[in-house]
Design goal:
- Helices cover about 40% and strands about 20% of the residues.
- Strand 4, helix 6 and strand 5 form a beta-alpha-beta unit.
- It is globular and about 55 Å long.
- By secondary structure, the protein is α/β, with parallel strands linked by helices.
- Strands 3-2-1-4-5-7-6 form a 7-stranded mixed β-sheet, with helices on both faces.
Amino acid sequence: MTTHTTAAQDTGADAALKAKHRTMWGLGDYPAVATEVIASLGPVLVEATGIGPSDSVLDVGAGSGNVAIPAARTGATVVASDLTPALLENGQAAAKAEGVSLRWEEGDAEHLPYDADVFDAVVSCVGVMFAPHHQEAADELVRVTRPGGRIGLLSWTPQGFIGQMFAIMKPYAPPPPPGAQPPPLWGDEDHVRALLGDRVRDVMAARQSLVVDRFASGEEFRDFFKATYGPTIAVYKAIADEPGRVATLDAELAELGRSHGAETGRMEWEYLLLTCRKA
């Protein structure tokens, strides 16, 4: 399979932004989030996209293999692509321990290193939504999918728990670079339909919820994400010299967890599940 490049890859600003993202997702312990909190999302997306033994599959923003490993279990030929090598290394070790075979390759969701029309299914589970330029990422998802092939996306909604967490953290974070869009917009059906346009057909979309029973209190949720989740860690690093703001953010995140049922042992985190076929 030959590689595909674009001129945008060579711009200094783009390279610097992607380096920043690579560093952010290498902070903490995202694989702990993938295995302890959101592990069930991967199989949901695999089933919804109809992945099976005869399929060639690309998982974009694969992280440590939340979707790629379950897809490979079906017998599909799978490529797991992510911007952050450390996450791929963790996923490779997990797949090896499980006896599952797939390819792990570093790649930018906005400039995928694959030819057009080559994959039977292209999927992303709370992955591509974090690419800063949504249209560029959507264009790449469509480009590398073969005609008639499937695209499956699972993204946190703006209204749901993780969308609200990002809204709380936004005032404490440095301003985004020009042109960057908020990740939870990928959880808005109209936004994703507009990104994909008339290049796809048979669009099916539904809001569903992940039941999370990992946390017993708002504080436990907050502290887990402060220790493991790159975007949260990055926000706290940005205000590390401002103890008053740290305390306020601590309180807001703990309250978010409480308001969504952490202390009952049952939280519900809303996501958008969208599947379609390339026209």
